[in-house]
Amino acid sequence: MLAPVLAAVSALSLAEPVSASPGAPPPEAAAEATERGVISYPPSFFAEVGPSTALDMVQRLPGFSFDRGAAVRGLSGAGGNVLIDGEPPVSKNDSLEEILRRIPVSSVLRIDVIRGGAPGIDMQGRTVIANVIRKSSAGLKGAFVWTMWPISDGRFFFGPRGELQWREGQRLIELSFVIGKGPQEMAGDGTRIRVDANGNTLIRSKIDNDAQGSRRWLVGAYETPFAGGRLRLNGAYIGGDADGEYYDKITYPSVYREFQYFAEDRAQSELGLRWNRRAGPNQLDLVAFQQWNKTDNYARFDSPTLNRLFRNEKDVSETVGRVHFRRTASPTLNLEAGIEGALNTLDSVTSLRINNGLVPLPAANVTVEERRGEAFAVAVVRASPQLAFEFGLRQEVSTVTSSGDVALEKSLSFTKPRATVTWSPMESLQVRARIEREVTQLNFDDFVANNSVTQTGAVAAGNPDLSPMQAWVGELAIERRFLKSGVFTVTLRRSDLKDVIDRAPVSLGSVVADAPANIGDGWRNELQVSLSTPLDGIGLKQATLKAQASLRQTEVTDPTTGRPRPISALQIFGSPPQISAVRDNEWELHYTQDLPYFRSTWGFDIFSPYIDRYYRLTEIETLKSGVVIQIFGEWKAQPDLSLRVELQSLVRDTTRVRDVWSGPRNTAPLQYRDFRDLQYDGAIQFRLRKTFG
Fold it and tell me: Region 137-154: what's the mean pLDDT?
């Protein structure tokens, strides 16, 4: 079966990629192949594009899809698929995207794309990763950016940001701030109609929906030699808020108005420390991390017959320590071992009032504590220049305790083996295979009652008595490089799932509620195809097309009906585990063309329609989004001054369909179907960037 696939992929090659020995690549070289599985892209590769930051460079890497990381507890698997000087950032609230945006192009020595692994590189559980390597040149560098968003409905947002980097010898200081406000693209105006099981109209209305959010960020970092190694300290304060108004003007069968309002305030702060020391073939990394998050949610619904008020105050803290030892035992053997410990706490207080009466909620007021430890060992064996193996074993133990409305204590233990093989039969072809047992993290938001009552009118209970979802995952990826910068990749992935977390009827005392629960076993299949290719061959000079398509299937047994169905959207999947929508099919196109004569770049991004479906005790909610188109252009007025204009989310249509039963879906009749169609007419964004140094 494998031979025809390899032959088909090989047929895509029009020419072998240019390879070079270490050092500066010749002018005609697109990139430098320093060793099997590692391709280096110097700044000259991106020169015609005129990037401003390391993020711009990473997004232009051939055959590389940037992943900003997952919002998980602990440090294992929290980082994205980009390293900075060979190390993942010790940060969570300060996203990888923001970190890369603060690194000016003038500070980048090169970017290595590592496929399958390389000596001294922690692949973070991934098979492909990028490594941004910075220069050590001294001096002061920085940028100031001013952004404006005129919105089609008359709103106007703006925000400044500043970045500063100072290096002197082996010491480095970084500072950054962001202040601004922007729109919520899923909000918009439209219509709503509700029909009964026979199609008779029950309600017809017009919707006026606006939502926006703001952020206030202050981030800093300091690097210096210390105790024979290198020490990096970083800190961040990230504040922000979001709010929205939803007016539902009923025109049939009578005239009245429903009003919803939500507001969220967030205050997040963190401190991180990394110390590493290299001594010959050995390297030791010590990491410590502390973060505090406070979130206040407020949601109100008013109508002539119903008033509903939801409030939630949530405090989350995380303390993590990690020791990681690496040794290059020989040119063909690399060894790693380490241990990580974490303490996580959640304190949540929730209230719901309906017509001024207090309504009891399951798991409304809870305090949760999780103590988790993980030990790991990894061996990377290079059997030949063409063949490499990785064998890893992780052992995770944890104890979760809950007090308040739900009192429990449970201990969990999971063994997580991993094996990968990377085969490079030729410079332009690589095959990667992986088999691994993955264990997702429990989502603290599932432990407490949440404010989805503002969306559906149903109580969304919490449930601290959950077990993580486990999966045996098999993966095969075939990557073919052609021309100077073309890449075609096919990935097949199969996951056999255990203890899937989805919504189910849960008995909490005398109350039966719709809540997160472990609903049994299931499976997930995925086929992903990606292409990155220059378009010079069809007459589009200095143009590049990136495309990616994913076909997915999932299945689990519905706990209400007992029948097979897909898994609800927004489940936790992937390596490393992360929250992602479970969509059957989706694709995206990214076109970029450089116009050196005009010192400009232009392009467009197209994202496919998608469907998210959520299965609950008494309803099925379906969210449909239409095609999203974005067009951009950037003009370099001067080497240190650029203007970027984006037409964002052109003609974005969102449809929500609610099928609601009068009781549990397996026994009660269908009560009504509710259709809501919203249209966000897009925005235009202007971004002026001035750099210095």
Answer: 86
